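Please, structure for the following, as tokens.
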Amino acid sequence: MSKSASLVEDFQRYFDVGLASTPAQQEQVFRVRYRIYCEEFHYEPVEAFPNKLETDEFDEKSRHSLITHKATGMGAGCARLVFPDEHSQMPMEKYCANAIDDKSIRPYDGRRDTICEFSRLGVDGAFRRRAGESASRFGKVAAIDCSKREERTFSLIAVATILSGFAMSELLGRPYCFAMMEPFLPRLLKRSGLIVHRIGENIEYHGQRAPYFFETGEIMKGMPDELSAFYAVIYSNFAACGSYTPQSARVAPRTSPPQSSPSSWLPSLYGHSFAT
């Protein structure tokens, strides 16, 4: 068994990757977002959310995923896909419209039920810090009382949040995806065989961001086998829950996959990478 396969198996031992389909699960998502977007990075004012649940107008037109730490029940990470229609915008259209090349979105007029935006993706600071670094709201990682074997799986939380977004996109038939990303993230994605396309200029929005586009089928074809295996587990779990109807069969693994290791699977992704 390869080192990366073993790490993924360990991740499944310590974490659940699920859909936030119940009110309680969605509350967990909003609490994780509050800790990241309000308390840690101060993207949103804490006083705007006295209940410590960070929500916005787009949540009602979204689907959410939640990474849960099994031992503590803590939300460790989350992501959402925002689904616009002919009468509603994506967050990036509302807040970053001046940065987007209009030709990249106009082709979807009349078929906006095929597009989505990756949004509010984040990993709680308690699962990004190592012992000896500055404490988060939950203290240092060591305070979670986990073994070194468990701690080494924390780098895959960010990977799981991204893969959960791909799975929601594929299952719900929203294959054309948009996102506002920090400059470093497309480079990390490319290292993992995942190609995204820039569709506009840098803009100052919670730091420097730029708009990007990707298509789920293209992402699947570029995914290395071991990362694809991790994705297949998440996809199958989501499909089995009954909330989604799969749109198509899973894409077969590449015959000549690029060399990869968990160290190239986006371990540096922080909560501020998808800020809209």
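The first helix runs from residue 3 to 14. The radius of gyration is 18 Å.
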